[in-house]
Design a protein that fits this description.
This protein is mainly alpha-helical and 152 residues long. The protein has 6 helices and 3 strands, in the order αββααααβα. The longest helix has 33 residues, at 3-35.
Length: 152
């Protein structure tokens, strides 16, 4: 093969790598919101004398497709945006669709879900990537009242 042609191919490969890399980064950026955070759910817990529920989003997301929870199980895309009660969970709705002793450990394990520090308000806790995109003026407002999740 003539040298010129080889060099041309190298350029094409380099460009391809850049485009691919860019796409992957863009995709990561789009999904970075709740995926890497723990969702603290505290619409009722504090008032009921329970610790707030902590939902490790990333832990679940690597096991199930978004559609399982946000489509089939009807979870709204909003921290605290679902009216979740224990009656519904016992009835097999929301967390109870899986935490029934079959797909995952069952509802008796209260403290595995109710693990938040009392008083922590409903939020997506910026445990990992979100920290990087927190605007400087918001820094310190994220309320690090629960221990940051260990890097997964
Ligand atoms: C699989 C996770 C999970 C388990 C296990 C679990 N809970 Fe909950 N619980 C939740 C979520 C999520 C909420 C909604 C939290 C909120 O909005 O404050 C909730 C809410 C509550 C509430 C307030 C709402 C209501 O229904 O009165 C109480 C009280 C409660 N849980 C008690 C318990 C007790 C007691 C146990 C153990 C027998 C338990 N929970 C086990 C996830 C769980
Ligand atoms: C195992 C169930 C489950 C899976 C799988 C799941 N989610 Fe979620 N997601 C939740 C729950 C629970 C919440 C919190 C809802 C609440 O607080 O009531 C949530 C919250 C969210 C939020 C709102 C966060 C905010 O800022 O308020 C977004 C966005 C989101 N999920 C996106 C996704 C995407 C994208 C995927 C797939 C890549 C996904 N989720 C997979 C259960 C799931
Ligand atoms: C689509 C099924 C599904 C739903 C819905 C679901 N979980 Fe889970 N969850 C699982 C599975 C599977 C595991 C892993 C169980 C195991 O390791 O035995 C798990 C594990 C967990 C863990 C332990 C994480 C760890 O680090 O070990 C917590 C806490 C938890 N779930 C909370 C919740 C809460 C709170 C909700 C509702 C807001 C919920 N889950 C809804 C399937 C689900």
């Amino acid at each position: 093969m003539p040298r010129g042609k080889l060099r041309g191919w190298r350029l094409v490969l380099l460009l391809l790598a850049c485009v691919l890399g860019g796409t992957i980064f863009a995709a990561m950026d789009n999904e970075a919101k709740a995926e890497y955070g723990d969702v603290v759910i505290n619409n009722y817990s504090d008032a009921a004398g329970m610790r707030p529920a902590v939902f490790p989003h990333w832990f679940h997301r690597i096991r199930f497709r978004c559609k399982v929870c946000h489509g089939d199980l009807g979870f709204q895309f909003k921290a605290g945006g679902n009216d979740i009660t224990m009656l519904k969970i016992f009835d097999g709705q929301f967390c109870g669709a899986c935490h029934n002793g079959q797909i995952a450990w069952s509802v008796e394990n209260c403290t595995l879900c109710h693990s938040g520090k009392p008083g922590t308000k409903t939020q997506v806790h910026n445990s990992t990537l979100d920290k990087l995109v927190t605007p400087p003026d918001k820094a310190g407002q994220s309320g690090s009242t629960i221990a940051p999740a260990a890097p997964k």
